[in-house]
Design brief:
mainly beta, globular, 6 strands, five-stranded mixed barrel, 161 residues
Length: 161
Amino acid sequence: MLKLFATEVIVSKGYDNAPALRFSEKGDSVRFRIGARVYDTRAEGNTRWVNLSVKAFGTVCDRVKRMQLKEGSRINLVGRFDEDVWEDTKTHEKKSASVIILDELEYCYTGTGEKKPGDGQRAAAGTQASPSPSVAGDMPAGFTGFEAYDAFGGGGSFFNE
């Protein structure tokens, strides 16, 4: 399996005005897309967007819920690059698409548009990061997204190793 590390990616909006995050009926899995602007001399303005699908299951899905991610959230993530394969219901031909199976995730920085010293780093043990109002307004009390993942039943944070 190929391991993928993505920094400063943005949670993309859903197709045709669908919600950015789609949880399963049981709530034990979630799908969403991430995007990043990349340099491309062939594109208008020399940049274009690259979007990838992301899936999360179990405790990682629970973390996504607690973080209350939404369209436009900036995140860092680690995942496994994989492929979804399915059969088209109309044509019965096999189709496939690349997908990231999410292993770990945290907020990237405050999202105010300006990077500040320490942005992109997890808060030191015993301290709270101070997210911007655009992130903090929808977050559960006391949860910043910068806590070590092991505080929520997973491994340690991969950003301070």
